Every structure is written in structure tokens, then in C-alpha cells.
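User: For a reading group we're discussing how well predicted structures match intuition. Take Carotenoid 3,4-desaturase. Before you show the prediction, I'll give you the sequence so everyone sees exactly what went in.
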Amino acid sequence: MNALSGQSVAVIGAGFGGLSTACYLADAGADVTVVEKNEQVGGRASALERDGFTFDMGPSWYLMPDVFERFFADFDREPSDYYSLERLDPHYRIFFKDNAGRRPGRDAPGLDVSADGDVVDVTPDREQVKEVFDAYEPGAGDRLDDYLAQAKENYEVGMEHFVYEDRPRVRDWLDPDLAEYARGLTLLGSMQDHVENYFDHPKLQQIMQYTLVFLGGAPNTTPALYNLMSHVDFNLGVYYPEGGMSGVADGIADLAEELGVEFRTDHPVTKIHGYRGGFKVETEGETDVLADVVVSDADYAHTEQELLPAEKRQYDADYWESRTYAPSAFLLYLGVEGDVEPLAHHTLVLPSDWEEHFGQIFDDPAWPEDPAYYLCVPSKTDDEVAPDGHSNLFALVPVAPGLDDTPEVRDEYRDLVLDDIAENTGVDLHDRIVVEERFSVSEFAERYNSYQGTALGLAHTLRQTSLFRPPHRSSALDGLYFTGAFTTPGIGVPMCLISGEITADYVLEDA
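Assistant: Thanks. Here is the predicted 3D structure of Carotenoid 3,4-desaturase, as C-alpha cells, for the group to look at:
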């Protein structure tokens, strides 16, 4: 189709939302130019290369493969045209920091009980996982089947009618068909309430809720509808894409170029001037960009507060100050001599009570004293990301956005994390590190212009989901649109791909 033939579009930012929007608009005939602040595409899915090590700087879980398949199918392609996938087994491993609440003598395949803490493997084998659940709580295995059946229904109906179909106004929710679609779905209440209806043991609750980290929320504030993430985890599987998530971004950028998109990296945008049919996007690059339409995949608050004049903003500073933001992160990218057994490709280390950690993110911001964190070891799967005889590892601790991350604080917290890894997984890294880079609140703010240094954007709280997120269309400036994690459907790489499609649909509708 060529509905946008003769129209020019400037896309600000080459994250997954911007890449997706650019593909759809170019496919519709538009002349699309993507201007990106940093030296590579992918947004937070950048790659860091140091001395033979290649690190995914941001997202590292390839989830919801159906979303990627649908995206590429819209252009008569397949993901395999751009990258290969390997399903991980185990999907991930969990180290619980102590044995609080354990039922002695109930070991099961994939459950290692020691004096130091429990180690659980979540694998593609449903029966194995059910045995683990029964080891903690009699009958929990069968309840897992019930839980995942509800999660599957939420996913299939929710994706088609509540995720791919945007409903930005109250009247959009008065559609009588919606009541039929929503019948039986878990729409109300929090994830904490929903999970407690199925499982009593706190460790089982944590296993069902860890995916909330991908949504930037806490169990007591994230809507129960997001139990659909358990269908993603347990039923659809966890994969590793060739080249990591930055390789996926490169693949979509290759598709965009095939469709005629022009990329300009190292072009930070400084101002947006004009109106539909007469925009000028000022950059620090060699030339500015003239366009009929502008789509921003940059941080929403940055776009409004820094790139637009006051009279063209939808929200004032008080609005952005009042929002609840997803966590930032303290990241250590580590090149390590030797292997790092017993870590898996994806490993979670969880305290017995993680309410305190969530409280130190959302309620009383502070550096977590007993952190929950994630370890990624892609060299377990990919020989190309580390030199021979070495391991590629990064540690990610969710922390509150806006924290003061001075060099002294970072030094102290780095030692705390390394000590915690050694104590709770048995992997002592202290004297084996040959490459080390750190990334935290200040770098998220500087590299990505992210508000308060959030790593993800707006959290998925009950009051910041669906029509309560900022719109794709600017209500203050005709011809300006937004895409990415601040808009619907929200946080995460698959959601940003869908956001790009929704934004492109709005551009086409208005054209």
C-alpha cells in the first residue's frame, strides 16, 4: 500500500518502538528518516563491546515469540530471515537466599535444597515444574495447571482485544462486545491478590511474580491481568536470539533499510519546530530534518519538556513529577576468567522476603540492603560473546529511579553485589574480573534522556495502564506522535513493537 506516498516522516529515536513505527510507515509509502542520539540503533537494547566481550546493555530476555513472528509476517518475512533462536533449558534458575518456609525432605527434579538456600530450575518440562511446586506445597502442581490455564486465556483474549487494539478513551471501553471478550478474564485486583488465590508458599508466589520486573511494577500495584506473563514464561518459552537482543534490533533495522528507511546515528535532537506539513527537527548532527510528520520514540517526558515549546506540551512538570516510574538499575558488565558454574544463562537471586526491596524502590527510595537481582551469562549459550576460557556476565539490581549514584556509592554497592553473589550462588568473582563496566541511574539519564534515570519508563500500576498512559497522538501539536514504552501497550520489547504498529495506524488514519 502507498497511503503515505509523498509524505515525509521523522522518527526520533531508534529503540524498538521507533524501529517498528519506521517499518510500518515506510511500508505505507512514507519517506522515513530515523534520527538517533547514540552511535547505534536499538535504544536500551544497545551492545557494549570491550576486549573481546560483547554485552547486551539492556533487555536480554527474548519473550513472546509470537509477537515477533506477527511483526515480521506483516512484511512477508520471518524472524529467521534476520536471526536464529535457541530455546533455553532451563528457562532460568532461581537461588533463594535462605530456606525460610521450606518443607524438609520434599526434594524434586529441578529443586536443590542445601543449608545455604534452595535452588530451583524452571524448565520447558511442565511435569518437572509441577513436582517442584508440590515439593513446596502439596497440591500446588495441579493448581499451577489451573493458574496457567487462566493465564493462557488472559493472554489470548487480552492480546487480541486489549493489547493490539488500542482503547485510548473512556467511550472505547463502552463497546458491548468488550463485555463478551472480557468474560472470565482476570481484570480487577492486584497480582499479589491473584497469586495468593492459588499459592500460599512465599517462594511459589515469587516464582509467579518475578516477571513483574519486566513491567516495572510491584505485586501489590500491578493489575492481575498481567498474570498473562506466566503464559509467556511457562508455555511460550524463553529463547536466546543470535547476537543477543541487540542482534534483534539490528535485524529490524536491516528490514527497515530494505523498506527504504534512512538512519542517522550520532544525531541528538535538540528541538522540534513547526506543525503538520512543516516540521523541522533540529539536531546536533550535520543537518536538521524536515518532515510532514514527527514520531518520537525518545523518552516522553524529555520530548515534551525539552524538545517542545511550552505552548505545544500536553503535560506540565507537575504531571511528570506525580507519575510512578519503573525502577532504574545498577548494572555490572563483567568479563570473567573461567566458567561461572552453577549459574544458568538466566539466573535470579531472591531474598525470602522481597517486599522490603520493592519498598526501597517504590515507597521509601534507597539502595536495597538485601537486594533481589538478575544475572545473565550469555556465554553459556553463545561462544561469540566472550574470548576462549572466559565468561560474559552482567548483574542487574533493580533500584529506585532518581537515586544519588555517586562514585563512592557505586564502589560500595559493587562490593555488596559481588559479596552477595559469592555468598548465595557460590560463584566468587572478585579475583577473576578482567573487564568491568558500570551503568546506573546517571547513565540511564545521560545516554537515554530517561526521566529520573528510569530504566523502563512508566510503571504498570493500576492507574498507569491502558487509557491512563500518555497517548500516541499529541493533543497539543497536530502531526506529532509518540511511540515506545511510555505509551500503550507499555513496557517491554514486544510491547514496544506493538506500540509502533499502533502509532503507525494513527498516522495512517489521520492521513
